[in-house]
Design goal:
The protein contains 3 helices and 4 strands. With 87 residues, the chain is an alpha+beta fold. It has one domain. A two-stranded antiparallel sheet has the order 1-2. It is elongated, with a radius of gyration of 15 Å.
Length: 87
């Protein structure tokens, strides 16, 4: 439990670094995208148990669609594991 709390604190303290990486990664895959933050972070209500809510807005080419894979087994994987384009 203490280790999880330390990880959460580190995540919260460094969220801008993670946000920049997510933005750069989405730009490399989706070309034109916006990454927005919402939820308790914006309301200044973060606690140790908080997560950071992000919204990725992009246009998807007509010949592709997005599928979300089941990630219940391991939530620590990167977002790119869960979102993929299907031709």
């Amino acid at each position: 439990m203490l280790n999880l709390m330390k990880q959460r604190i580190e995540m919260i303290e460094n969220y801008k670094k993670y946000l920049k990486k997510i933005h750069n990664d989405t730009q490399s895959v989706l070309e034109c995208s916006n990454v927005d933050v919402f939820g308790s972070l914006i309301r200044d209500e973060l606690v140790v148990a908080s997560d950071i809510d992000i919204l990725i807005i992009t246009e998807v080419p007509q010949n592709q669609y997005i599928t979300r894979r089941n990630h219940s087994k391991d939530r620590r994987r990167s977002w790119s594991t869960f979102i993929s384009f299907v031709p």
